[in-house]
Structures are given as structure tokens and as C-alpha cells.
Write a structure and sequence with these properties.
Radius of gyration: 19 Å
Number of helices: 8
Strand order of the largest sheet: 1-2-3-6-5-4
CATH topology of the largest domain: Pnp Oxidase, Chain A
CATH architecture of the largest domain: Roll
Number of strands: 10
Distance between the termini: 61 Å
């Protein structure tokens, strides 16, 4: 019997960018874990953020089934990608297989993630510091991208994470970077959103890292990806000027 032709396409730069955008522009995701009591797959919905290295982050209650599942078995999958009108299977989606890392509450990592998470999910301030709530980093191990009919790809961990020597420096100065950008270009967020063909809104920058920046307006979240990963703080400014929607030099 002849081997069937593979349904997978070769993973290229366009596929990697789409996968990163689907993951980093998601405000929430479906999460699948293994129920420790029954062994059955258990699916739920979680708010989603990202750490400075692009790793997805979730904030969960210790009372939830998926938290107990992650404590028992670190394996989890995330499904991101929003359908629109018509056939929901015609829209791009990404399934990311992850290993969960609990974040210690009194650590620098927790403080960094907490700030980034609140920039996306302001209402989480009501419960983010409750004793039974905690963060997990969900470190990608592999991913399956369905970019639409006939566009299936397999991705590896390095395709979804930000590997830059500038990560720590950018994390330390993220708020300053945003303030300086807005001081020089008050219309930056609106211009970037228009370049991504987003509707009118009160757009603002809610996160920056070495691979791009995030825009938010109400419940809408956009991801602006750089063409190449910045190597440090100074690179952020030149990368923004070089983006495809042609923001003039800052």
C-alpha cells in the first residue's frame, strides 16, 4: 500500500508568525488537562496572559478542577483562535501542548507576571491577590496550527517562545518604554491598530517584549509582531519604526 501524502505543510516564517499571533493575542483560551480523579480529559476556560519570553500564563483558583489537575500532572493543552461568521472550522486556530510551571508568589517572576497580566485583565485586580489564586507558566513543548483548509503545520517550542538576551532588560523597563513611545508618538496605538485593520476604539499599548507589543481596547486584543526579535531595549524603538504599517521614524 502506498503511503498517503502528508496533510502537513512545511513550517515556514508565515506559519510561525500566525501561530505566535494566535497565542499572544488571545485574552482567554480553552485548556485541557487530565482529571486526577478519573483520568479523563477535562476542558475549561482560562484567562490568558504572556510572560516576557512569550510563555503563556494563566491565573487560577486552587479550588478549580484544572488547578488540581495541573498539580497532579503538569501536562496541558491550550486552544486559541477566534472563529467569525460562517463555518467556525474555516478560521485559524492553534493547539499548544505545554508543561505547567507554578510561579512562587514572593518571587520576582510573580511580580513581573502580575503586572503584565493586570495590563490585559484589569478586572482581575478584584481577586488576583486572593490566597488561593496563583499563576502557572504553561511552557510550550509543541503545537499544531490549522491555518484554514489545507493549511496544517507542526511547530516546536522555539517557534513560540521569545529567545532574546534582552528579555530581562526589556522586562525591567517595559513601563518606561511604553511611556517614552507614547510621549514621542501619542497616536502610536491608534496608528498600529489601523494598520492591523482593527476598528475604531480607545486603543492603548498593554504590553511590550522583544518580539512585539500588544494593543487593547475594551475586550479586543491585538498583537503586533516585529519582523525579527529585538536584542535589547534600544532595538525596540527601531523595530517599531520598521513595522509594515509604516509608522514614521520616532
Amino acid at each position: 500500500m502506498k503511503d498517503q501524502a502528508s496533510v502537513l505543510r512545511e513550517t515556514d516564517g508565515e506559519a510561525r508568525k500566525l501561530a505566535r499571533t494566535l497565542l499572544r493575542s488571545a485574552r482567554y483560551a480553552a485548556i485541557a488537562v487530565l482529571d486526577p480523579g478519573t483520568g479523563f480529559p477535562f476542558a475549561s476556560r482560562v484567562l490568558l496572559g504572556t510572560d516576557i519570553d512569550g510563555v503563556p500564563v494563566i491565573l487560577v483558583s486552587g479550588l478549580s478542577t484544572h488547578t488540581r489537575a495541573l498539580d497532579a500532572d503538569r501536562r496541558a493543552s491550550l486552544l486559541t483562535g477566534e472563529p467569525g461568521k460562517g463555518d467556525p472550522l474555516a478560521y485559524a486556530r492553534l493547539t499548544t501542548q505545554c508543561l505547567a510551571e507554578p510561579v512562587e508568589r514572593d518571587s520576582e517572576t510573580h511580580e513581573r507576571i502580575r503586572g503584565r497580566f493586570l495590563n490585559r485583565h484589569a478586572k482581575a485586580k478584584l481577586y488576583i491577590d486572593f490566597p488561593d489564586f496563583r499563576f502557572f507558566r504553561l511552557v510550550p513543548q509543541s503545537a499544531s496550527l490549522n491555518g484554514g483548509f489545507g493549511r496544517a503545520y507542526v511547530l516546536e517550542s522555539e517557534d513560540l517562545t521569545i529567545r532574546s538576551p534582552g528579555n530581562e532588560a526589556v522586562a525591567a523597563k517595559a513601563d518606561t518604554i511604553v511611556q517614552e513611545l507614547l510621549a514621542k508618538r501619542p497616536d502610536l496605538a491608534a496608528t498600529a491598530a489601523a494598520g492591523l485593520k482593527a476598528g475604531n476604539g480607545d486603543w492603548r499599548i498593554c504590553g511590550v517584549d522583544c518580539a512585539g507589543f500588544d494593543l487593547i481596547s475594551g475586550d479586543l486584543l491585538l498583537r503586533c509582531e516585529f519582523e525579527t526579535v529585538a536584542q535589547g531595549v534600544d532595538d525596540i524603538y527601531s523595530h517599531i519604526s520598521n513595522m509594515k504599517y509604516a509608522i514614521p521614524e520616532i
